[in-house]
Amino acid sequence: MAKQSMLAKSALPALDMYCRKANTRSLRKLAYSLGAGLGTNKTSLRSNIMNQAISLNELRQRQLDQGKISVTSIDLGISNFAYAKFEMTLGEELPKLLEWNKFQLEEEFLKSKFKERMSLHPTDTSEVVYNLCEYLTARKKLPDMFTIERQRSRSMSSRSILEPILKVNILEQILFSNLLNKSRYSQKGALNYMVASSDPQRMTSYWNSVMPLKDSIKRSYSKAEEEETKTNGLSNRISKTTKIVTVKKILEGALGIGDYKYISLSPDWSKRLESFIPGNPKFKLYDCAPLGPTSGMKKDDDLADSFLHGLAWIEWLKFYGQIREIVMRKEGKYDQTVLAAFNDTIKSNKLDVNNLNDAQTTIHHKRISS
């Protein structure tokens, strides 16, 4: 066990060394493959890769120690809070879907009498997040990582911050802090999990490059969306359609009626999905997930986001394992043949950077700068 831990730690400086030797094009593709930020130059690109590698390295070490890891991914929303949980067992090719659900936060977690809606008052937001945090950590089998989708600060081109967006931003910050601090201060490490902020742009870019479903997605467009694509490129609304179609293709693949094999299913999940998907090309994700009476509006996009965030982290972890194995071939020391293998592995990864849609990146930057 000590030897495994030492090798896990030494993999990080070895990876950094080979990143320094690689060209910018290779590093850019490696960043997409690991879920890291791009940066403005090679130095910031390498720094972002290494910051992401620290989290992935810890996840991999947990997998080595335990034989498996699980990730719970959260898509925050007041009316549509969604989460998904995946488990990846060492030696198996595909992760397994464990949980997938959504609910209306106020109905589920605002317990104060005489209140139906959460205000921006600290007593309301703290109560909702406290109850939510208790719900997420009350399981017998806690995940090894919680990922929380990073929220935008403004609504598209608006110069003001709308109250619903402000609420979700506050909830994101409090939930991240509560989950992290609850783990930090738990007695003898009883709540031993990681908490990560998951960038929606990186997740979206990853799945667009791995699964370029242009024909399938176009068939799902409404007439309004078709016209919008012609004039504005890939808008936020159409991006949601893209992700929903992506999840549908993955679910079909899990049932053996599609080509995209990314997850496996338990007998219970197989039985449930077989009730909605085969022979129904227009099936809805909210029918597939076992939603309860406080599930909020019947919408697919929040379920799709939570699903794809969690699965993306599993895919990034798998590729990190491949890269880590290569950089450690000569005990972490530099070798020209290892560098060649490092570059070849990045180049041969199924991720196709050419399929990334520049319009999404443009929209994302506009949101941040507006």
Automatic annotation (TrEMBL):
Q: Which Pfam families match?
A: Ydc2-catalyt
Q: Which InterPro entries match?
A: Mrs1/Cce1, RNaseH-like_sf, RNaseH_sf, Ydc2_cat
Q: Name one GO cellular component term.
A: mitochondrion
Q: Which domain of life is it from?
A: Eukaryota
Residue limits of the Mitochondrial resolvase Ydc2 catalytic domain? Answer: 71-319
Question: Which Gene Ontology molecular-function terms are recorded?
Answer: crossed form four-way junction DNA binding; DNA endonuclease activity; flap-structured DNA binding; Y-form DNA binding
Its name, as the record gives it, is Mitochondrial resolvase Ydc2 catalytic domain-containing protein
Q: Which organism is it from?
A: Zygotorulaspora mrakii (Zygosaccharomyces mrakii)
